[in-house]
């Protein structure tokens, strides 16, 4: 029975992922971008979790992730997000859709949504996605970023890390090192969203694709909080 259990479990999650992929259409993708904008706006309205202005001033890229965590024996975090980079001109790029996930063994009960903002402070880390996937906290050091109250404290030491993490999870402290799962390219989703065959590198770093109307509110909001 034990020999059969794991293959069956893997098959179950693979089938679920396949069904989700098959059901995906452009309306879903537009909703994904809209939900990422909503996550960022909700964070910035709440001073307990908001990304401070002096941290946003350092941002070279932003990743906004919306994940779902569920499990009994196998805990799985799967989800979606967007990445945006700040160009040398100071203008922010298109929001480019990505996939996000993590799998871990262990006894886990219940389910919850996990909303996270990653502030990337160097130019190298976003380019790790050119290789299809990278693990936050493994391929790029990731630490919990300071909240507003910490960042305005004159004694607070600015955190020097390529990725600063903001999440709704409680019980974390600024500067704590974390491993936050992986993010990966989703070129097929971007083909559908932007009506183009350009892939993630071109969408982030070139001006060859104009923003579609549905993503402009997110671009405008990021430009406003991180000019």
Structure notes:
This protein has 227 residues and is α+β, with helices and mostly antiparallel strands. It has one domain (25-225). Helix content is 33%, strand content 26%. It has 7 helices and 9 strands. A 9-stranded mixed β-sheet has the order 5-9-3-2-1-4-7-6-8. A hairpin with a 3-residue loop joins β1 (61-70) and β2. The N and C termini lie far apart (58 Å).
Quick tags:
nine-stranded mixed sheet, single chain, alpha+beta, 26% strand, globular
Order of helices and strands: HHHEEEEEEHEEEHHH
Q: Structural class per helix/strand content?
A: alpha+beta
The profile of the biggest β sheet is:
9 strands, mixed
Helix content: 25-40%
What characteristic shape results from the CA principal axes? Answer: globular
Query: Got a strand count?
Result: 9
**Count of discrete alpha- or pi-helical segments spanning 4 or more residues:** 7
**Separation of termini?**
58 Å
Mean pLDDT: 79
Percent strand equals 25-35%
Low-confidence stretches: 1-23, 105-109
Strand order of the largest sheet: 5-9-3-2-1-4-7-6-8
Radius of gyration: 18 Å
- The structural domain count equals 1
Secondary-structure map:
Layout: H1 2-23, H2 26-45, H3 53-56, E1 61-70, E2 74-85, E3 96-105, E4 111-120, E5 133-135, E6 142-144, H4 148-151, E7 163-167, E8 177-178, E9 182-185, H5 187-194, H6 200-205, H7 216-225
Parallel strand pairs: 6-7
Antiparallel strand pairs: 1-2, 1-4, 2-3, 3-9, 4-7, 5-9, 6-8
